Structures are given as structure tokens and as C-alpha cells.
């Protein structure tokens, strides 16, 4: 069974059945899905569950190791690390989702247009994408954030821009090979406009490989934001964010206050790990060839 | 048909996400040329290349065309990096005028730096210098940018290459093992291990390794750049301390250089294992399911020989091309590792320069990276056409 | 000589390539008893302080590889540590000096035995060329020279080979000390001129990469961003020849790594360590931590008078009463330095500077003052800090922010990248609420007030203007310190600064150094490692 286009609209039930099969078949993916639900849960309910105000300092309790009162210890201002890690989930998730969504929308629109119309559209967008690709990407992100100012929005924009080429390329390739496919010709003959054919008939078929990329990129977006924080270009304090906490905590490791970096680091790793495994799982899900 | 999806998601995307896809066929990673060509590297191209001298000529033409086609990207990089650096906040003139400068001394410095001219004028001057091979002078280190890049690039290359060698040595066997035992716990464990490696921020891994292996255990030398204080660099030939030390016959220095290299290389290797392992696994699976492996099996070759002889040799092409992509990505991305290990490479140079709005240094770095990136892609394309089994079969 | 040939035209590439003969044997020597290995976090970007764009850490070259006409002495502080002595000037290149009766002419007699590092004699012509250079190149060097009344080449005269004369426009107590700061260092003018060009008459390019002085150390190796090697000048003539033969400076950007290095004993000196490390490393076996408060320096919270609510003195006072001084001092400074709050009276008794401001934490009083000023409902003001100083600025700002919220002032934090900070805070002076630091090299209150309280002057980041201060400072600057009028003026200035509080003192910072297996560390006002007195234990 080698399907030509992975995710033909073959009925929801078949898809779910396949999903269940993939999960059963691959325990790692099952774990990833469970972790993903857990992270979403923390993002939604984190602020309600946090035992302390993540912003409230208490100089008298600064730099205390983990204890029953403070599970993850306290930071240099006496803030509860556990509460900060928990509350940060929402922001980190929001940054990665927003960045990836933005690059997905912009990149796929550009790529689809290039793939469908070709010609000068393709040539121009191609050169733009080449230019972005030729940049050392992390330095490009740094430059953008440094130039625009380090706010959450600008971190999102920077991450979106450096991810954009990948979506553009995937969308272009997927659309280009289906441009003259039978179903597209048929749709055109039926009197649909180019835009309609592209948006409603061709593009949906290009989605599955991009879905996989989405999940992988979420993890990378979080790492990217963390890297920016390490350079000092992250979200502004006192907002709790994993990257900043790891970056700041890293300076305390040598002096023995390991909990400052380890716990947010673990949270960060867990999230990225989940998204990466999830990406693999999604790939299995949208690639029915794996069933054979 | 379906493999086209793999082309798109492959290579670079996999590098970024740290997880290359399960490519469905060998030559999947996307070198820049694939996009430029506008079509998949088609069978027709392979046939064209197959005919002896004609093939060589075609190859030369193709390379020439690639070079031409990569020029717009370089021009784009020059323009964007110029605009981006000018958009950086702050006034370098004020910054470099020193702690007690007044308006007059700042104006003097602005004129000296040529920053009192209009932006288009500055750009023309910059392009003119560039054409003359002058990348300008870094104001933060006070050295010509070209000179510094030339001095620092070998450090970055040595680190990146060592990391990739290490990473390949671990990741490829892992990928092969995972493919050979697809679906078993070995497969899942390999996947979990490489994914975990790519899930940690490199600066965090780096600092943790320094803490454990230098501070606590004392096994690693002090993280002080490329050579311990006790050694002085070997006579520069390649700029790679390890190679130069061997050439100069200074084994003690070689040991010192390797010791310094160990932790940063491991840090980077952990991060780059995932795409390589995944590609190796996918390519092996593909090869194992292919007709020629089936033929080899049918011909009575032992499973070991099938696995390591036939399948493995055929699976290496996509791994090599992935390696190229990972390399160019890592070179730009080891910025943070260099910072942690005080590694005197181009990455740490760029970070420092960016923070102080050191225009010439940032532009020089970006341009150098872009040229490297384009050159590497060309190289991948060329190697690819040279060792593509289909090409060889045809020839 | 071969050094010059080796460096000429080669630049950093050859510098890094290590062609010096002794380097091959250095591995053994590096562990020897006459070498100190030092780590620091910043980059030395030039060997020439006079060059455009030379950064602060590079000033140590002027300090260690060059001499001045006169130098400050060294004294032992009550805690047994060593410090430069502002009150004592000792001979440098000059062996003696005298003032004319009207105080307008200073005549220096150079040491007849004075030699540059290349063996040629130090002459008054060299001194004149060096002074001309300092006042002509512009930028910071010329600004600093002007502070001492040294403004143009006509003021400097080489009377004969060993006599150098400076003519001032008016007598000032600042002139002689200003000749002992790092800026007016003496260069070997013959050597420099041999490498000057028509476009570059001051040999800025050459001196940028080569040291041409008479100082106790020469720079034999410099890899920007990585390391620098000082070698002892065995023919040193302006003072005792140093005990140690070599100092290797390594640049290590990560503070965590620097701490690990000094803690594990892989280096002998870690200069300018963070307060937290200083506090925690104190008492470590074999390690000495030296903390010296920086003279004439305060870390302050600035309230910019461009921002409407801060135009009102009562609002500024309210902010001053709301700062959690103790917590800030403990959390941001780790108790290193001197607290600058809790003074008893609003009228100063002495002209000591800095001395504690008469504010402490009193939120009720702060609220009352806000009510009185008509801001009982509070307001919002952006609070700016410098990214590159976030080690102390961020914790301090977060604690201040928390207390400001309690009196109704919401102060969202803005981090400004290093490149933009100077421009925004000092040049444009546009940051409504911000942290700032200034320390005057010349240790007089009037000098501090000149830079930080006069309208338009660089460090007056609060855009403060007070007619009385404007009138007093220019007079006070040149008066001798024992003049009763001077003392009265300074007291009045301090009183105004306390009452009006455009700059709210947080604490007096300290400079920390940790070292082992060596002695002779000295604190200097310029906050640069001054290595001539170092000894290996």
C-alpha cells in the first residue's frame, strides 16, 4: 500500500484508526503525546497552581536550596523557582506557537504562490528565501531582536523569519508537483479560479509534510528564544521564561546553586523533547506507508 | 511521487529541527541548488551526466550556473546585513568616544568613522571597499575585519569539524542499529537518546560539562580557548592546531589542543547527532527495502554482509549530504558554545560585535558565513553528482 | 629591534603566530615563580589609550607599559591592603617639579638616567610630543586633559633635553593630579615618528599595535579577544624594577569560568570579580579576596527631570524614601562596598564624598509625599537598565520596582543593550527612571559635582539644573581644598543634592580582585590592574 498523496481525505475514521495504530506501535510517541498534554495543562493552569507569586522577591530567603517549602529552591532575589518554572510554561509555549504559526502562514503562502505560478514570482521569492538561508540564522535572529528591541513580539518575529524558508520550500515543492495533477486540472476545468484551485485543492494536499515540520520547529523556537536570552536579548525581566532562567542560573552553577539552572533547564528540555518526538509521531501518522 | 515531500522537509529543515525526516530515498537533502533549479534533481539530469566527456562538460556548466545563481543571494546578504546593522540601536560614535566624551568629541569620532554621511553614501563606500577586498576595521577590537576573520575562522572550523566527526562516529552506528532493529527497544532508545541531545540548549550543556568535568572531577583542562596556558600554538600551516601540531611534530601540543577541544566538541556533537542518526536510520531502512538488497539477499549473501556491505554503502550518500548541511548550520550556530568555552572563533566575535553595534565586524562575519554557506552547498551538489550511484552506473 | 620587524605590517596574524624565541620555552616558564597568569572578562582593543575607540580595559596598557611625568604613591589601608594614595605624588619620568609663585607655571626636571624600553633616553621633546598628542587627538583623552587645564600645545614647552614646562591659564588644584591619570603617558617620540605618516602624524596605527614607552613592562604578545603578555622591562628607570618577569592576561568572557579558574588555582589573579563571588570566595583556602570601595563613585537611581512627575522635588523624595536600600545592598551588591543611605541629618557636617544620603526605607513617608505632590493615584514610568551591567542593575531594579509598586508607581523594566546605553542615558539623557554609575578619577567632591550635577555635562543623566550649583562648581574646582570658602561651597552643594535628590544614592561600589600565590595587589582609582608591584609568593 503505497499511497501517492499521504493525507488524502480518506475519512476521519481511517485516520483515527491509523493514529491509534501508530500510538500502539510506538510507545515513545505515546509518551510524547502524554507529555504534550501535560505541558498544555501546565500552560493553562500553571498560574493557578503556582504555590507562590512568581514575581515576589524575598531577600531574606535568597538562594535557598530545594526544600519542602520551595521544591525547586529560590533564586537570587528569593523568588520561588518552582512557581516561576510552572508559570513560564504559558509564555514559552505562546512564543513557540506564535512564531511557528507566523512562519507557517507566511512561508506557505509565499512558497505556494511560487510553486503555483512559477515565473518571476518564483524567481523573486526564491532569491529572498536564498538570502535568508545564506545568513547565519542565529546571528540573524540576534540582529533582528537587537535592532527592534527585546520584546516578546520581536522574539516571535525573529524566530518566524528564520524559520520561514523551510515552509516556503516545502510548500513550493509540494505545490509545484501537483500543479498539473489531474485533480487540479479537473478543478480548473470546472471553472475554479487559480486562487481557488490553489487554496482549496492543491494546498491541503501539501499540508501533511508541513505539519511534521511544525512540531519540530516548535521545539527549535523554544531553544532559539533560550539562546537569545543567554546573549541577553530575551524577554524582559522579571517575566519568568525558561531560557532566561537557565541563562541566568548558568552563572550560579559553579558557585553551587545548581537548582537555578537545572530545573528550568529540565523543563525546557522536556518541552523540546516532547515536540521533537511528537514531530516524529506526526510523521508516522501522516505517512501511511509506514503501515506496511 | 511521494518522495518529493521528503526533499522539501529534508536537509536544512531537519538540521534546524534537529530531526531530519525519514527520507524515502537516498538523495534527499536539499542543497540550495535544488531550490534554485526549480525541479528535483531529475533522472533526466542523471542521464545527461552519464555520457563521458559530455558529462564533464555538463558538470562544469552546471557548476558555473550554480555559481551564477548564488550571486543574487550574496548580494541580498550584503544589502540586508548593511541595513540590519544600521538599524541596530545605539550610536557607535558615542559608545567609542569613551567614558567622558562630550558632544564635540563624539562628533569628531563620528566623522572619523564616516558615520556622518548619508546612508546611501555609506553603503556605496562599503560596497566599494568590499569590491577592493576590504571588509573594514572592527571598532571594538581595533583590527581589520578580514584579518580577524582569517585568524578566527580556523578555530571555528576546527571545532565544528571535530564535533561533526565525533557526532558521525556515534550517530551513524546508532542510526544503523536502529534501522537494523526497526521497531524494537533499540530503535526507540536510539531515538530517545538523540532527541534528548538536541533538546538541550548548547550553552546549558556546555556549562554543565564544564562544571562536572573541569570543576568537580578535574579531568578536563580549564575552558580557556584552544590551548592551555602551558602551550603556545604550533607553527600555523592550516590554522588547525591539531593538524599543525602533528605537522610540527609537537605531540605534547597536539595533546593539549585535543584536550581543549574535547568538551566544546562533545557539546556540539550532542546537538548535531539527531539529524545524522535520523538520516542514517532512514537511509538504511530505504536501502534495506530496496531491490538491490533483496537481490543480494536472494544471491545468498550473509545478513551481515548485506547490512554492512551492500545496504550501508548505499545509505551513506544521503548521510554525507546531510553532513554538509549540518556543517554549514553548525558553523553559524556554535556562537553560544564558543562563548561558553572562550573559544576564539568567528561566532563569539560576531556576538561581541553585535552587542556594541560594530558594523564592519557584523557585516564581515555575515558575509563570510554566507559565502561559506553558498560554497558548501555547491560542494555538496558537486560531490552529490560525483558519487551518486545512478550517475556511476550510467558512466 | 627584531620585535619591531616582526610586528611591522604583520598585524594580529603574526602577533598570534608567536615568532618570539622565548615562547618555545614558555611552557616550563609559565609555571615558574616569576609569572602571574591573570584572567579578566573584557577585551583589550588597543594598546594606545589615545586612539579613537579604545575601551576602558585597554587603559591598563597605558598604566603598565608607560610612565607619566608624576605618579600617585601607594599606601597601606587600615585593613592591610594596598591602595594608591591620592594625597602623594611621586616622581615618574620627572624626578622633581616646581610651581611658579603665581601657580601658573609648572617646571619638571626629567631623570637624567631615564631610558625608554628601546634604550634611548627620555627627553623633554618626547614629553612635549606626548602631551601635544593627548590634547590634539580629540575624544576622551583631550576631554580628560582639559579637566586639568591642559588644553593646547602652546602650553607645553621643552626648555632643554631634561626640562619640561607647562603653562596654565589659571592655577588649579586639578592640574598636577591630572598629569598622574593614565591619559598623559609618555611615548618614545622618535620611535613613533619613524612610524608616522602624513595622514597619521601621531602614529596612531603603529602605537595601536606596539608599545613605545618606558614603563615597567612591555607588551610582547597581543591577540585581541584572547590574551596579552607583559614582559618585565629589565632596564626600567622610573622606579624599582618589578619582581615578576611576566604577566599573562587571558580574556575569559564567562564569569562562571573565571571563578572556576581562580578557585581551582589554574590562574593566580582574577581581576574585577563579581560581588557575589567576592563574598563567597572569601575565606577559601589559599585565596585572597580584596575588596576596595571605589573613591568618588556612587551607584545611583536617576530621576530624569524631563519626565513630568519628576520635575516635582516631592516626587523625587518619595522615590528616595521608597527604595529598599538594605535589600538592594545585600542582594545586588552582596554587601560589598559602602551603604549610602540612612544619614542622620539633611545638613552635611563634613565635605567627605561620597557620604550616606539622609534617606532610608519609609513607605508611609513616601506615600505621604506623593499625596502632597498630587500624585496620590500614582503613575507609570519606564525603568531603564544597562544590559551589560545587569549583574547588579537587574536585581537592584527589580527590588526597587517592587517597592515603587507599593506606593503606586508602576515601573516596567527596559533593558538597553550596551551600545545604546551610553547614548540614551548620558548623551541624549532621555531615560526617565534609570540606574547609573559615575566615579570621578580626581578625588574631589567638586569634580564629582562638575560631571554629575551641572546641566549638560555628561554624567548628569537626570537633566538636573540648580542655579546655586551652576554658580559654585566652576569656582570650587580650582580652589585649594583647605580654603574655608571651598569647604562651605562643598557643604552647600551636598546639602542641595540631598534635598533635591535628582540622583538617589544606592551604595558606593567596590572593586574586587581574587588572587593566590602572589602579593602586592594594589587598588587604583582607574580600576585597572596595576602590575608593577605584584610579587609571586
From TrEMBL, chain A:
The chain crosses the membrane at residues 28-50, 93-116, 128-149, 218-238, 258-279. Pfam families: BPD_transp_1, OppC_N. Keywords: Cell membrane, Membrane, Peptide transport, Protein transport, Transmembrane, Transmembrane helix, Transport. GO terms for cellular component: plasma membrane. InterPro entries: BP-dependent_transpt_permease, MetI-like, MetI-like_sf, OppC_N. GO terms for biological process: peptide transport; protein transport; transmembrane transport. It is a multi-pass membrane protein. Residues 89-279 form the ABC transmembrane type-1 domain. SUPFAM superfamilies: MetI-like. PROSITE patterns: ABC_TM1. This is Peptide/nickel transport system permease protein.
Automatic annotation (TrEMBL), chain B:
Belongs to the binding-protein-dependent transport system permease family. Keywords: Cell membrane, Membrane, Transmembrane, Transmembrane helix, Transport. Residues 153-384 form the ABC transmembrane type-1 domain. It is a multi-pass membrane protein. Pfam families: BPD_transp_1, BPD_transp_1_N. It comes from Rubrimonas cliftonensis. InterPro entries: BPD_transp_1_N (IPR045621), MetI-like (IPR000515), MetI-like_sf (IPR035906). GO terms for cellular component: plasma membrane. It comes from the Bacteria. Its main location: membrane. One of its GO terms (molecular function) is dipeptide transmembrane transporter activity. This is Peptide/nickel transport system permease protein. It is found in: Cell membrane. The chain crosses the membrane at residues 67-88, 159-180, 192-217, 257-277, 306-331, 365-387.
Automatic annotation (TrEMBL), chain C:
Pfam families: SBP_bac_5. Keywords: Signal, Transport. Residues 1-32 form the signal peptide. InterPro entries: Peptide/Ni-bd (IPR030678), SBP_5 (IPR039424), SBP_5_dom (IPR000914), TAT_signal (IPR006311). GO terms for cellular component: ATP-binding cassette (ABC) transporter complex; outer membrane-bounded periplasmic space. SUPFAM superfamilies: Periplasmic binding protein-like II. Residues 88-457 form the Solute-binding protein family domain. The keyword Signal applies. GO terms for molecular function: peptide transmembrane transporter activity. PROSITE patterns: TAT. It is found in: Periplasm. GO terms for biological process: peptide transport. Belongs to the bacterial solute-binding protein 5 family. This is Peptide/nickel transport system substrate-binding protein. It comes from Rubrimonas cliftonensis.
Amino acid at each position: 500500500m503505497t499511497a501517492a498523496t499521504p493525507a488524502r481525505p480518506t475519512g476521519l475514521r481511517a485516520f483515527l484508526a491509523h493514529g491509534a495504530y501508530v500510538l500502539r506501535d510506538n510507545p515513545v510517541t505515546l509518551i510524547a503525546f502524554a507529555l504534550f498534554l501535560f505541558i498544555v495543562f501546565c500552560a493553562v493552569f500553571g498560574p493557578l497552581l503556582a504555590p507562590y507569586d512568581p514575581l515576589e522577591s524575598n531577600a531574606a530567603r535568597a538562594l535557598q536550596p530545594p526544600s519542602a517549602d520551595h521544591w525547586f529552591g529560590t533564586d537570587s532575589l528569593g523568588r520561588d523557582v518552582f512557581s516561576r518554572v510552572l508559570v513560564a510554561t504559558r509564555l514559552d509555549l505562546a512564543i513557540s506557537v506564535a512564531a511557528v504559526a507566523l512562519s507557517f502562514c507566511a512561508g506557505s503562502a509565499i512558497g505556494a504562490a511560487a510553486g503555483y505560478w512559477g515565473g518571476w514570482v518564483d524567481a523573486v521569492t526564491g532569491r529572498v528565501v536564498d538570502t535568508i538561508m545564506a545568513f547565519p540564522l542565529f546571528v540573524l535572529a540576534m540582529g533582528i531582536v537587537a535592532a527592534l528591541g527585546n520584546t516578546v513580539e520581536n522574539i516571535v518575529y525573529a524566530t518566524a523569519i528564520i524559520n520561514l524558508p523551510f515552509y516556503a520550500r516545502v510548500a513550493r515543492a509540494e505545490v509545484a508537483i501537483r500543479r498539473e495533477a489531474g485533480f487540479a486540472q479537473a478543478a480548473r476545468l470546472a471553472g475554479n479560479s487559480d486562487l481557488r484551485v490553489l487554496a482549496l485543492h492543491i494546498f491541503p494536499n501539501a499540508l501533511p509534510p508541513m505539519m511534521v515540520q511544525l512540531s519540530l520547529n516548535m521545539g527549535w523556537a523554544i531553544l532559539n528564544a533560550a539562546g537569545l536570552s543567554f546573549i541577553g536579548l530575551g524577554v524582559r525581566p522579571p517575566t519568568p521564561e525558561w531560557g532566561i532562567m537557565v541563562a541566568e542560573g548558568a552563572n550560579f552553577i559553579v558557585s553551587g546553586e545548581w537548582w537555578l539552572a537545572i530545573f528550568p533547564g529540565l523543563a525546557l528540555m522536556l518541552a523540546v523533547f516532547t515536540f521533537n518526538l511528537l514531530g516524529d509521531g506526526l510523521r508516522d501518522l501522516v505517512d501511511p506507508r509506514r503501515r506496511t | 511521487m511521494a518522495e518529493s515531500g521528503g526533499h522539501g522537509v529534508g536537509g536544512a529543515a531537519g538540521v534546524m529541527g534537529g530531526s531530519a525526516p525519514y527520507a524515502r530515498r537516498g538523495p534527499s537533502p536539499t542543497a540550495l541548488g535544488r531550490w534554485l533549479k526549480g525541479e528535483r534533481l531529475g533522472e533526466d539530469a542523471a542521464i545527461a551526466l552519464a555520457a563521458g566527456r559530455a558529462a564533464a562538460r555538463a558538470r562544469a556548466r552546471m557548476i558555473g550556473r550554480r555559481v551564477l545563481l548564488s550571486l543574487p543571494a550574496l548580494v541580498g546578504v550584503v544589502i540586508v546585513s548593511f541595513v540590519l546593522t544600521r538599524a541596530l540601536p545605539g550610536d557607535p560614535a558615542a559608545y567609542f568616544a569613551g567614558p567622558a566624551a562630550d558632544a564635540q568629541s563624539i562628533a569628531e569620532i563620528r566623522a572619523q568613522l564616516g558615520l556622518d554621511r548619508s546612508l546611501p553614501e555609506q553603503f556605496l563606500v562599503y560596497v566599494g571597499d568590499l569590491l577592493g577586498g576590504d571588509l573594514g576595521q572592527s571598532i571594538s577590537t581595533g583590527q581589520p575585519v578580514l584579518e580577524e576573520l582569517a585568524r578566527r575562522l580556523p578555530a571555528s572550523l576546527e571545532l565544528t569539524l571535530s564535533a561533526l566527526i565525533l557526532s558521525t562516529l556515534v550517530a551513524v552506528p546508532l542510526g544503523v542499529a536502529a534501522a537494523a532493529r526497526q521497531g524494537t527497544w533499540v530503535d526507540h532508545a536510539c531515538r530517545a537518546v538523540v532527541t534528548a541531545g538536541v533538546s538541550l540548549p548548547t550553552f546549558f550543556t556546555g556549562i554543565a560539562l564544564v562544571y562536572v568535568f573541569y570543576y568537580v572531577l578535574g579531568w578536563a583542562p580549564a575552558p580557556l580557548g584552544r590551548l592551555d596556558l602551558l602551550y603556545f600554538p604550533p607553527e600555523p600551516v592550516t590554522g588547525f592546531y591539531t593538524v599543525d601540531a602533528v605537522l610540527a611534530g609537537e605531540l605534547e601540543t597536539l595533546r593539549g589542543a585535543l584536550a581543549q577541544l574535547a568538551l566544546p566538541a562533545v557539546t556540539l556533537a550532542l546537538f548535531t547527532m539527531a539529524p545524522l542518526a535520523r538520516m542514517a536510520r532512514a537511509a538504511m531502512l530505504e536501502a534495506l527495502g530496496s531491490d538491490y538488497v533483496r537481490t543480494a539477499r536472494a544471491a545468498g549473501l550473509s545478513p551481515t554482509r548485506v547490512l554492512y556491505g551492500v545496504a550501508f554503502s548505499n545509505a551513506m550518500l544521503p548521510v554525507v549530504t546531510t553532513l554538509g548541511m549540518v556543517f554549514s548550520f553548525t558553523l553559524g550556530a556554535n556562537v553560544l558554545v564558543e562563548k561558553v568555552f572562550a573559544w576564539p572563533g568567528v561566532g563569539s566575535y560576531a556576538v561581541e560585535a553585535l552587542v556594541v553595534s560594530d558594523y564592519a565586524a557584523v557585516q564581515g562575519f555575515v558575509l563570510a558565513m554566507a559565502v561559506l554557506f553558498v560554497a558548501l552547498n555547491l560542494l555538496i551538489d558537486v560531490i552529490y553528482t560525483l558519487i551518486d550511484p545512478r550517475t556511476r552506473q550510467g558512466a | 629591534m627584531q620585535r619591531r620587524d616582526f610586528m611591522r605590517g604583520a598585524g594580529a596574524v603574526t602577533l598570534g603566530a608567536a615568532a618570539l624565541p622565548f615562547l618555545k620555552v614558555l611552557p616550563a616558564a609559565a609555571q615558574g615563580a616569576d609569572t602571574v597568569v591573570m584572567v579578566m572578562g573584557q577585551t583589550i582593543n588597543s594598546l594606545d589609550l589615545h586612539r579613537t575607540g579604545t575601551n576602558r580595559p585597554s587603559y591598563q596598557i597605558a598604566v603598565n607599559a608607560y610612565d607619566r611625568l608624576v605618579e600617585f604613591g601607594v599606601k597601606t589601608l587600615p585593613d592591610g591592603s594596598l591602595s594608591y594614595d591620592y594625597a602623594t605624588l611621586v616622581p615618574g619620568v620627572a624626578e622633581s617639579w616646581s610651581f611658579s609663585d603665581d601657580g601658573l607655571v609648572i617646571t619638571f626636571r626629567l631623570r637624567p638616567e631615564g631610558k625608554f624600553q628601546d634604550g634611548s633616553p627620555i627627553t623633554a621633546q618626547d614629553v612635549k610630543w606626548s602631551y601635544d598628542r593627548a590634547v590634539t587627538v580629540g575624544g576622551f583623552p583631550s576631554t580628560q586633559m582639559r579637566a586639568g587645564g591642559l588644553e593646547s600645545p602652546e602650553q607645553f614647552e621643552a626648555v632643554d633635553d631634561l626640562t619640561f614646562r607647562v603653562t596654565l591659564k589659571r592655577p588649579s588644584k586639578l592640574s598636577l593630579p591630572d598629569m598622574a591619570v593614565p591619559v598623559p603617558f609618555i611615548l618614545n617620540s622618535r620611535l613613533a615618528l619613524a612610524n608616522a605618516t602624513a595622514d597619521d602624524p601621531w602614529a596612531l596605527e603603529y602605537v595601536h599595535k606596539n608599545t613605545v614607552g618606558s614603563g615597567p613592562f612591555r607588551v610582547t604578545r597581543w591577540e585581541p579577544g584572547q590574551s596579552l603578555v607583559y614582559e618585565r622591562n629589565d632596564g626600567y628607570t622610573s622606579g624599582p624594577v618589578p619582581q615578576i618577569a611576566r604577566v599573562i592576561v587571558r580574556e575569559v568572557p564567562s564569569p562562571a569560568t573565571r571563578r572556576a579558574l581562580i578557585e581551582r588555582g589554574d590562574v593566580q589573579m582574577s581581576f574585577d570579580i563579581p560581588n557575589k563571588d567576592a563574598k563567597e570566595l572569601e575565606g577559601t583556602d589559599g585565596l585572597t579576596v580584596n575588596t576596595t570601595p571605589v573613591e568618588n563613585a556612587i551607584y545611583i537611581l536617576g530621576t530624569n527631570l524631563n519626565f513630568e512627575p519628576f520635575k516635582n522635588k516631592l516626587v523625587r523624595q518619595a522615590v528616595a524614601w521608597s527604595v529598599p536600600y538594605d535589600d538592594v545592598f545585600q542582594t545586588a551588591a552582596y554587601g560589598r562596598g559602602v551603604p549610602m543611605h540612612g544619614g542622620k541629618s539633611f545638613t552635611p557636617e563634613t565635605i567627605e564624598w561620597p557620604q550616606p544620603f539622609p534617606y532610608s526605607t519609609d513607605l508611609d513617608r513616601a506615600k505621604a509625599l506623593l499625596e502632597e505632590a498630587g500624585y496620590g493615584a500614582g503613575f507609570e514610568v519606564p525603568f531603564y537598565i544597562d544590559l551589560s551591567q545587569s549583574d547588579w542593575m537587574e536585581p537592584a531594579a527589580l527590588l526597587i520596582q517592587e517597592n515603587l509598586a507599593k506606593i503606586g508607581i508602576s515601573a516596567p523594566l527596559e533593558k538597553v543593550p550596551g551600545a545604546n546605553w551610553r547614548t540614551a542615558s548620558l548623551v541624549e539623557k532621555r531615560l526617565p527612571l534609570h540606574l547609573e554609575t559615575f566615579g570621578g578619577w580626581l578625588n574631589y567632591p567638586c569634580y564629582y559635582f562638575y560631571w554629575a550635577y551641572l546641566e549638560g555635562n555628561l554624567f548628569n543623566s537626570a537633566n538636573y539644573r540648580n542655579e546655586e550649583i551652576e554658580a559654585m562648581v566652576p569656582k570650587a574646582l580650582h580652589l585649594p581644598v583647605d580654603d574655608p570658602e571651598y569647604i562651605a561651597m562643598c557643604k552647600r552643594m551636598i546639602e542641595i543634592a540631598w534635598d533635591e535628590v535628582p540622583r538617589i544614592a544606592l551604595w558606593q561600589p567596590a572593586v574586587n580582585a581574587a588572587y593566590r600565590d602572589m602579593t602586592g595587589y594594589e587598588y587604583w582609582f582607574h580600576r585597572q590592574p596595576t602590575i608593577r608591584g605584584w610579587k609571586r609568593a
